[in-house]
């Protein structure tokens, strides 16, 4: 059994976690309600996400209090430089699920400043973080990967998250580092987010194995479609948005956690999906978005998963050339149905000339909780250059005026050169996507 350690950083990362973990428990047939007594169905896969002391049987847990008695703990590291978000874990039903020594908090936050997260907190917390990482890794027999969640727009998730990512590379270089990062979308609530995004993207390009960017605008649109009454009040709660992200993450990791006739594990995914160093940004979409829609026909499921409106990032992967793709099917799905999807994909997509057979399929028999079947589509498409282009434009709007630059220059360790390096790194990734297929010309944007 292979294990995955999750690392949630900052407010967004930890709030995604508080939606993710109840779903993980549900997937294992474990209720967070201590009164319900249901049969645990999938406990053999429990050690992937949970440390189970070896003298305790892994089956037969049906409630969170059973896990508490058996001292089962989530393989999760919770980091925030403020206390309140992580502190909520200690008050709710999940309070006994986490090892208290894997909580790392401070009082000051990073004030939406990547530099503070990366340099100030990064330097102060380095030894504590390494100690938690080593201890958590030692509890694994076969550590399969690190899975990180954080936002790109704030200071702690983006800055300290980037720092943790490079610590992982330095200390566990053979273990894959997968990151789900949340882009604020076009109307950011954080003025400095274009800088924070740019600095983080550079670090993600350099140190991550695979990145699954999602954005709050695409996710809000998905959530409003699911509950049209929201049109009256367009504000979508983060818990709804995070629930879409959490389902994507469960789907993504299912192949290395559950048995299946054609499983794609995270290492395979990182290898198959990344044709060139640094071009490891994948779009994701899944269907059905709502629990059990048994009326959905197999063919509709495919059409839906490929539609632009189901993408968790506001880009259409099919508008560009596809470098690689993976269709992960879960639940009641036959091998022939999944192969049919792949054939349809070849017809729909324009694949890069040197990888005409670049679509992989995975099949995991264990369904997402509440779903009979579902499909996750991951693509590495040249359309991702649009994401980098938009990030560059936003970055340059601020940097041309040198607006807010002084906040970063006041941080110990931060050098003005970081701005040029971030700009160049985004340009490079953008260009590399274009060169990877020689299909189109993306205009360069230079700094003044
Ligand atoms: N999807 C989603 N986005 C969130 C959530 N919380 C915050 N965000 C977004 O994340 C960005 C702000 O980042 P935070 O995660 O709050 O910041 P942080 O990492 O805690 O950093 P500092 O507060 O600056 O120390 C904004 O764009 C928010 O819209 C959440 O629970 N879900
Ligand atoms: Mg915060």
Plain-language structure description:
With 448 residues, the protein is an alpha/beta fold. Among the domains are: 3-231, Rossmann fold, CATH 3.40.50; 385-437, Helix Hairpins (Orthogonal Bundle). It is 42% helix and 16% strand. The chain contains 14 helices and twelve strands. It has helices at 10-27, 64-69, 84-88, 114-138, 156-171, 193-207, 216-226, 238-257, 266-273, 298-306, 335-348, 384-400, 405-409, 417-437; strands at residues 3-9, 50-51, 73-74, 76-80, 103-105, 143-151, 176-183, 210-215, 283-287, 322-331, 359-364, 373-381. The strands form three sheets. A six-stranded parallel sheet has the order 5-4-1-6-7-8, sandwiched between helices. The protein has a four-stranded mixed sheet with strand order 9-12-10-11, sandwiched between helices. Helix 3 (84-88) links the parallel strand 4 (76-80) and strand 5. The longest helix has 25 residues, at 114-138. The chain binds guanosine-5'-triphosphate and magnesium ion.
Task: Give the helix proportion (percent range).
Answer: 40-55%
* Helix and strand pattern: EHEHEEHEHEHEHEHHHEHEHEEHHH
What number is the mean pLDDT? Answer: 89
Structural class: alpha/beta
Quick one: biggest sheet?
Answer: 6 strands, parallel
Count of helical regions = 14
Distance between the termini: 53 Å
Trace the largest sheet across and list its strands.
Answer: 5-4-1-6-7-8
CATH fold topology of the domain at 3-231: Rossmann fold
What is the alpha-carbon Rg in Å? 21 Å
Shape: globular
Bound molecules: guanosine-5'-triphosphate, magnesium ion
Q: How does CATH name the architecture of the domain at 3-231?
A: 3-Layer(aba) Sandwich
């Amino acid at each position: 059994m292979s294990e995955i350690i999750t690392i949630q950083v900052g407010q967004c990362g930890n709030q995604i976690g508080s939606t993710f973990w109840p779903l993980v428990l549900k997937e294992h047939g474990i209720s967070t309600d201590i009164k319900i007594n249901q049969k645990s169905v999938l406990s053999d896969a429990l050690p992937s996400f949970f440390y189970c002391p070896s003298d305790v049987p892994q089956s037969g847990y049906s409630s969170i209090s059973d896990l508490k008695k058996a001292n089962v703990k989530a393989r999760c590291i919770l980091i925030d430089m403020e206390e309140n978000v992580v502190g909520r874990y200690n008050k709710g039903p999940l309070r006994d699920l986490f090892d208290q020594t894997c909580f790392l908090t401070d009082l000051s936050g990073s004030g939406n400043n990547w530099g503070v997260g990366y340099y100030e907190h990064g330097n102060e917390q380095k030894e504590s973080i390494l100690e938690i990482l080593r201890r958590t890794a030692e509890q694994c027999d076969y550590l399969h990967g690190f899975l990180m969640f954080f936002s790109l727009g704030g200071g702690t998730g983006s800055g300290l998250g980037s720092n943790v990512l490079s610590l992982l590379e330095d200390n566990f270089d053979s273990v894959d580092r997968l990151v789900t990062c949340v882009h604020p979308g076009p109307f950011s609530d954080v003025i400095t987010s274009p800088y924070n995004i740019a600095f983080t993207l550079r670090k993600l390009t350099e140190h991550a194995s695979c990145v699954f960017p999602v954005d709050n605008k695409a996710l809000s649109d998905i959530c409003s479609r699911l509950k049209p009454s929201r049109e009256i009040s367009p504000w979508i709660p983060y818990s709804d948005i995070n629930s879409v992200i959490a389902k994507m993450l469960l789907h993504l990791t299912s192949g290395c956690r559950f048995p299946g006739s054609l499983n794609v594990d995270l290492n395979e995914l990182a290898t198959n999906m990344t044709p060139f160093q640094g071009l490891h940004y994948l779009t994701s979409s899944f269907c059905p978005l709502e629990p059990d829609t048994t009326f959905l026909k197999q063919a509709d499921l495919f059409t839906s998963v490929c539609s632009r409106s189901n993408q968790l990032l506001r880009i259409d992967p099919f508008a560009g050339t596809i470098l690689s793709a993976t269709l992960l099917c879960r639940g009641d799905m036959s091998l022939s149905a999944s192969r049919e999807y792949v054939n349809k994909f070849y017809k729909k997509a324009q694949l890069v000339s040197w990888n005409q057979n670049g679509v992989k399929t995975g099949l995991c028999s264990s369904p997402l909780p509440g779903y009979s079947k579902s499909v996750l589509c991951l693509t590495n498409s040249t359309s991702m250059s649009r994401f980098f282009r938009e990030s560059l434009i936003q970055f340059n709007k601020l940097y041309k005026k040198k607006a807010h630059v002084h906040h970063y220059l006041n941080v110990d360790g931060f050098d003005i050169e970081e701005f040029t390096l971030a700009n160049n790194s985004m340009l490079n990734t953008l260009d590399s996507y274009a060169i990877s297929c020689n299909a189109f010309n993306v205009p360069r944007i230079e700094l003044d």
